[in-house]
C-alpha cells in the first residue's frame, strides 16, 4: 500500500515556527524527488520546496526562501518541512509529495506534474 501521511499542522501565531512531517509507506523516499506544496484559500496549488532526485539539489519558492527548510530522513522514510518566521500569507493546506521530478522549465521552477504520490494534506493557519 503506497501512502504518504502528512501531520503537524495547526494554529500558529505570526512569527512562530512549525515542523511538518510526512511518513511514507509502501515505497522508499530514497529514490524519489520529494516536495511540499500548498494551497491557500481561493488560490491554486503552488510549490513550496523540493529536493531533486538527480543531484539532491534543494529548491524553494521565493516567498519562503530563508524561512523554510526541507529535509529527508531515509532511516525513518520520512520527510519534513521546518517553517520559521511564519506569516499570515503562509496559511494553507500543505501537501507532501514524491515522484519522478519536481522542477521544470528554463528556470527550474517548482512543478507538481512530476509528482506521483500525494498525501492528503495538513492545515496550517497563521493568525493572531
What can you tell me about this protein's structure?
- It is built from no helices and 13 strands.
- By secondary structure, it is mostly beta strands.
- The strands form 3 sheets. Strands 2, 4, 5, 6, 9, 12 and 13 form a 7-stranded mixed sheet that branches. Strands 1-3-8-7 form a 4-stranded antiparallel sheet, with no helix packed on it.
- Strand 5 and strand 6 (58-60) form a beta hairpin.
- The protein is globular.
- The chain starts with a strand and ends with a strand.
Oligomer: single chain
Helicity level = under 10%
| Averaged pLDDT | 95
- What pattern of helices and strands is seen along the backbone? EEEEEEEEEEEEE
Annotation field: number of helices: 0
The portion of residues forming beta strands comes to over 45%
Q: How many strands in all?
A: 13
Low-confidence stretches: none
Major pleated sheet:
7 strands, mixed
First CA to last CA: what distance? 40 Å
User: What is Rg?
Assistant: 14 Å
Q: What class do helices, strands and sheet pairing give?
A: mainly beta
> Globular, elongated, flat, extended or rod-shaped: what is the shape?
globular
